[in-house]
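Protein modeling request. Please complete all fields; requests missing the sequence field cannot be processed.
Requester role: graduate student
Desired output: 3D structure, token encoding
Chains: 1
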Amino acid sequence: MTARSREVPLSAPARGIAPLPRVLDELRPPLLAAVRRAAPGWLQGEVDDLTQVAMLRLNRALEKDPERELTRAYLGRIAYTTVIDEIRRRRKEREHAAPDAEPEREATCAPDPERLAGSAGLRTDINACLGRAQQRVRDALTLYLLGHSVPEIAALLKHTRKTAENIVYRGLGALRTCLKAKGHTP
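Delivered output (186 residues):
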């Protein structure tokens, strides 16, 4: 699909074609799809609510300018700004929570003994696989597994960025192969 085909109006301008509620009903499925694409994974459970907010925004926009062409790009922009505003609203709520208020507590589960044993075995196998690697690969992978980015690894190990990328990429491949041989699957 080219950028030009995305700009084709979904319907003619709202005025004169159909009453506003019918036009909005027709626009709900593409708006829902746009919200679903824009929402991060942790907001996917609230896509319907966000779509409703986006529908209200679209309604207000059409009241202001009934001649507005309703392209997929325009609907995507409404969906995107709705999702971004919701993320900002939630961050602000967290920041302004009263210090003495209890945070929401999620149900906590005791760690599963089998899972703990499996993770201990995985840790042992990762260390064994890293022990077989060359020193520079071991250093780069250790930093990567600790959460450092490739540019940080390059700076810390005094490599070029491309060299660090290659070391990490090839090292991760070798680590995967070694862990598969030990019975671990990704």
